Queue: 2 jobs
Job 1
Amino acid sequence: MQIIYDTLKDAGIRYDEGPDIGGDYGPYIQSERAAIYKEYAEKLVKLGGAYYCFCDKERIDSLKDENGVGRYDKHCLHLSKEEVAEKLAAGVPYVIRQNVPEEGSGSYEDLVYGTVTVDFKDIEDGVLLKSDGMPTYNFANVVDDHLMGITHVIRGSEYLSSTPKYNLMYDAFGWERPTYIHLPPIMKNAHEKLSKRNGDASYQDLVDKGYIKEAIINYIALLGWSPKSNQEKMSLKELEENFSLSGINKSPSIFDEPKLCWLSGEYIRAMSAEEFKAVALPFLQKSKAYGRYDEDKLLKMLQSRVDVLEDIPSKVDFLEEYGEIDPALYFNKKMKSDAEIAKAVLPKAADVFKNLDKFENAELYAALVALAQEQGMKNGQVLWCVRIALTGKENTPGGASEMAELLGRERSLERLAHAMSLLA
Ligand code: ZN
């Protein structure tokens, strides 16, 4: 969008947030630019596509019902040339209105929605040039697009039904209509649109949270568009090659954060250790555990388990937060473990830790599995209990042996002793 705004700025047009349709367009336009629109509006009058309206506020209000709803009645369309010239000469305030046929309909081909037809009776003779000489959005966008040589208009589907109104102007001026591509909105749920104005996350917010940039782009491309293949993870280059308008859905898509999360994780898993370190380190530095453990080991463990980088501190903070262990944590139905099993396992695990030559993940894992076999237990019974004892947490970013390696032999033994004392 920035590119478009900059282009407009170069053309002497200033857009801020972007005016809403039918909204007050005046503040967005520099005054020297206004003369151009006035010229085009007057030209459109000569061509029959618009007319001067001198109705005062009172008359316009009289056309509205108690709810403020009411259409303009084309009263001034029927003024004679002489009457119009007279009023203009006398300085009577006026607006210029679009002259929409009273009968018939306007059709166009939208590349997503197909043939769209709107009855002219559903389109009002809207104001194109206001009494202060400023154009409305409805008029300025047509003039701007023409002057800038816009060939394709891509915009939200809320404009589907107002497009015939713009086409009437293109036709009246004798300008070539652009190709229209209306896109369905992105929703945050079944009822509400995703909107930065309502506090929904922007691209930058998502980057700051630690979603991988490539994953965000990839995910957004998949919103409302389905590739022909089932492949969902696509690089920008692959998106370029595969994207086609024909895959755009007409129905709104819902912004599904868990799916973005999953995709972000896929990108993290595909990174080299160096690439992951570059993006993950700033998040690791926010953790209490930072600086106290082997950074590369921590990162290696995290790379296989984290989807969004902002989750890093919560995944490693347990290394520094250790104290009470809820005995209920030893209970795991699937692993068939509980506090009684832990009582039997932990002293034996402590012996294993003491006697192991290399206190590293692979050796620790093999030794704990061997312990389970020797005791006639399931592997899970030993590994679950040891992991709970070492961390005091139900969820950790690694298994028992990884946690032990990270903590080191001395602290692992201290923690096992502490856990055993709580069970006694
Ligand atoms: Zn009028």
Note: Residues 63 and 73 are 8 Å apart (CA to CA).
Job 2
Amino acid sequence: MRSKMSISLTLVFFAFLGCRTLVRCAYQDDPFYYDKFPDGFLWSTATSSYQIEGGWNSSEKGENIWDRFTHTCCHIEDNSTGDVACDSYNKIQDDVQLLKSLGVSHYRFSISWSRIMADGTNATIKSGGIDYYNRLINALKKANIEPMVTLYHWDLPQALQDIGGWENELLVGYFNEYARTCFKRFGDRVKLWLTFNEPFVVVWVGLGFGAHAPGISDRPGEAPYKAAHTIIKSHAEAWHTYDNEFRSTQKGRISITLDSDWKGPKDPNSADDKAASERAMQFKLGWFANPIFKNGDYPDVMKELIANKSAEEGRSTSRLPEFTESEKLRIKGTFDFFGLNHYTTQLITTQYRSDKKPNYGSDMDAKESQDPSWQRAGSSWLYVVPWGLRALLNWIKDNYGNPELYITENGVSDRNASLQDDHRVEFYRNYINNVLKAIKKDGCNVKGYTAWSLMDNFEWAAGYTEKFGLHYVDFSDPARPRKAKKSAEFYKQLIKDNGFNAPTSASAPTVGPRHRASSVLFMVVTLLVKFLM
Ligand code: GBH
């Protein structure tokens, strides 16, 4: 009786106060939140080697899988290549100038493996490539910008693909040698490292359906699992190499960057949709995060579903490889923070496969769709759903013990050459506001944010048709001039303010004293109700 009364009392206050600090309302209904980010919050922007550098055969650089892929017809939408791209190989000063003007504290870029080791091994170390990254890192340090360096952003030396690529376990050793060389050569100045960028995309888009290099698509139920297995071990070994040989002197931190969409239940009130959403999250983010950030092994639901389907297909073993007990111990906890790339959201329902064809895509018994009201972008897969980022950050907090987290990519595309990119300003404003809410209202341990990308660049299979830049690049001009878009000005101001200043006009929605008073009142009542119950 008394508890029933307390519940109705609580409900009345929920209704009275609407979406307030202590009320769990739907993220999408939560109004814009004006506040600052915590002191020391890290602001960054990112690029990757193949997408910007060009100089594809300079300084004895070896061929990599993206050179091979783009030089072979017809994988790229506009038949373009990264041969010149933004010509960043010759434009260090220009790029650093853009970064200085933005006022970022950090710059995330990647090292091209085949620039450092032409065939991917110690036998072919190239001083020209090492020299390029030394000059870039020194220019950044001089400008007071901290480098955040990704070792592998998809451009595998072709010679290593020729022996089977990530499906060959020998790559664990080769990657470790490459990582060690980078720590040795650059670690005196680089204090933030990422082993892999988005291993999911490497194994699924590259080796599952083949839209990315090396373009393998004949075994979508096997190759991705096998390659992921090698990548997870490679990551773990490189982490241990840093931990054992470099951490005490270089005092940096190292992790991996995983990409994840938010895969929410289509009907949030349906238990079946919620279970499907959970499966989809575990099959995408959990595939890599569960071993590294949780227990050294794949998520239970993956092990179970893939084993069942493998048996159904008449196999004696699961298509999902197993880690040995000592491998699990070696993998578990190989992170110093959580690196996260995020762009978009899908709605998930259950769907069982109709055939017995082995395919990662149907192993999870889930189907995705989008809400028709969601705004589109220049990429067909990218729907603008700002609250999805907050939902995802909370899912990570709840599943992996609220690790320190850096958002290492977030951004939006268009197909315009316009500098008036208002839609991108809105995108950043709303996504970053959801990061702020995740920190301040939900207690997520987010330490930094990175905008993708510093400038328009080679967008993989889409070539130069999809643009993600804060800066416009004229790819028809051999000098590749860069120009700030409106979004660059917006990001610059946001960094300067370290958050969102409340609008001054009286009519604008604010988070003022009235809100604070109601929050306090609400807190008191909640405590009272809890006490009574
Ligand atoms: C990131 O991937 C990458 O890290 C970055 O290099 C890239 O430029 C940026 O996002 C923008 O895309 O259309 O079927 O070929 C984000 C994940 C992976 C999403 C590839 C789009 C294309 C699938 N992306 N995917 S398809």
Note: Residues 223-250 form the longest helix (28 residues).
